[in-house]
Amino acid sequence: MSEHLLEINDLDVQFHTMDGTVHAVNGISLEIDPGETLGLVGETGAGKTTTALSILNLIQSPPGKIEHGEILFEGRNVLEMSEAELHAYRGSDVAMIFQDPMTALNPIYTVEYQIAEVIQIHEKVSKEEAIEKAREMLEFVGIPAERGCEYPHQFSGGMKQRVVIAMALACSPKLLLADEPTTALDVTIQAQVLDMMNDLKKKFNSAMLLITHDLGVVAETCDKVAIMYAGKIMEYGSLEDIFDHTAHPYTEGLFNSIPSLDEDVERLKPIRGLMPDPSHLPEGCAFNPRCPYADKLCQSAEAELQEVGPGHYCRCHHVNKGVPMYFPDEKGNELAYQHGLPVSNPGNDFLEKGQKGEKADE
Amino acid sequence: MSEELLRVEHLKKYFDTPHGKLHAVDDVGFILNKGETLGVVGESGCGKSTLGRTVLGLLPATDGKIYFEGEDITHVKGKHRRELQKEMQIIFQDPYSSLNPRYNVFELISSPLRTFHLCHGKEELEKRVFELMDTVGLARRYAYAYPHELDGGRRQRIGVARALSVDPQFIVCDEPVSALDVSIQAQILNLLQDLQDEKKISYMFVTHDMSVVKHISNDILVMYVGSMVEKAPTKKLFSMPLHPYTKGLLSAIPVPSIHRQNKRIIMQGELTSPVNPKPGCRFASRCPYVKDKCRSEYPVYREVMPEHFVACHYAEEINYLDKDGTTSGQEQPEKKTEERDLAKV
Hints:
The structure holds 2 protein chains of 2 kinds. Chain A is built from 12 helices and 14 strands. Chain A is of the alpha/beta class. In chain A, strand 4 and strand 5 form a beta hairpin. The C terminus of chain A is likely disordered. Chain B is an alpha/beta fold. Chain B has 2 domains: 219 residues, P-loop containing nucleotide triphosphate hydrolases (Rossmann fold, 3-Layer(aba) Sandwich); 104 residues, no CATH class. Chain B is built from 12 helices and 12 strands. Chain B has an 8-stranded mixed β-sheet with strand order 6-7-8-3-9-10-12-11, sandwiched between helices. In chain B, strands 2-1-4-5 form a 4-stranded antiparallel β-sheet. In chain B, strand 7, helix 6 and strand 8 form a beta-alpha-beta unit. In chain B, helix 3 crosses helix 4 and helix 3 runs parallel beside helix 5. The radius of gyration of chain B is 22 Å and the shape is globular. Chains A and B meet through helix 6, helix 7, helix 8, helix 9 and helix 10 of A and helix 4, helix 5, helix 6, helix 7 and helix 9 of B.
């Protein structure tokens, strides 16, 4: 087996709070090869950002704790690094682009100073040289170098995100962690930024972990995709596997929730119910309360990630039975869950109503 | 023939700033029929939320007219305005900041009912609130929960219930699903559609998400820095956008499919400032087809094809249209040839 740039093995992160233990990440394993882009997709609270922060060993402790697992970057375990090693590792080997460019920049320093700071820390250069390089980086991301001496408030949202990207790329990191880099931007600006990130990634040959909830963005930038739900990877595979041979009901639900631009759909088919509370995960498969195909087995036993095609993994009990993953729900398996406990009379919940409505449609 | 509910003519809303007049909404007009949905799209800062608020009377209009059921309501005040508020409601974008954290769900939903004295006696009020909670799909056990105990989707349902409580004919939905996850977003969109079918409510749906607006709207109005650039029935707009901005906007949407090889038009630059805008087309600085006339003359908003309005000097040339509005030549010519032809003109 070839050496991966980054390898995460059975990572488990918990947050111990006053209200109980929050299971943010429950045993995920991932690999990223040099120059590859992996899309990490999931809804709010799926544990995407926690995963990214773990890679930098930045989980705040307390309340957070990496319970077990290992994160190998070029064979070195990030979780066992000393402070000094981490200092060198963060920013030069792995850099992060944060979601909100408005808060990621310091308002009282000029942007070139902020970029130069990163360079000075990681490379043995004088202040002047660092500023010079910072200006070069600004040119790379399409900002005129003379604007380097301006302050963040003088830039628009798209420009700020470019500055943040310039800062992340300043030391040519081998791996870029991009946490929803374009969510806060308008579509036309998003198109510009994505386009630029694709170019720069090729130029610097960086690998990237792209965290997003937008499957459209994934389709345009990623090589591989991991779908995350309740701290677990539900489906993992190449772009073609996920988009054309969708195996997991949750992935299917995500696709059905997006109004299509090409087809006319009268009603959307949303995933019923809500994301489970990560401090009270349901028993069995984490997705079973919302899954249209769930049966007794799903409620009692957790599914394992199994290979459904070359390099295509799926965590579902019913994926390998040869029949389409459809199980008629005449058994009355329509149990609603609230905080992991079955609710005996869910009659009033709209979600159940929606479910019934859809059956009428079929 | 559908019945007209709301008509807006030449509506303007300017704000005074230290640097001059900010043209938030500039000469916007549209007609909304009963039971239909008008989608208003544009990027942040294009004045779409201001348009919604001005139509509702939450902001006084600088100029122009607003007719509701044939009556001019632009400058209505006092008791009459209050009556109107019962007919026109709004659902806000952010379900986190639009609900008073000190009120529980019951109080939140019942407060419009109390304000307008729509229920007499405690029992009637209770019955009505629970009815509303059923309608929007909030379990009754949440009646005495506070907003911070609920997630975004449930909070947005409270917002919907509040807007519905007074039985309005018209609701402005100001980005009601932008703050929500896709699966929850789909639930709320379905709810809004069901309510429209049931009660014949008209929506003005303000959003920046093109796929959402396509799903829910009958007509779409595209705004750019305060002005209307294009308006057409949804299908026409998506099958044949006429304005260069709309073209760019549609091609910029990331499509969740790996087979669609859409030719991306990446628009350079960013929105121009709406403060004291220069004469000429506001999109001129980013437009790939820009010519001298665009920089000096404000384009007239006109009907280029039946029901298809656009504000662009060169809509015909760009889209190969004949005078009578039919396409000539190929359906979708390559961009390069377009540019070459334009150079000849």
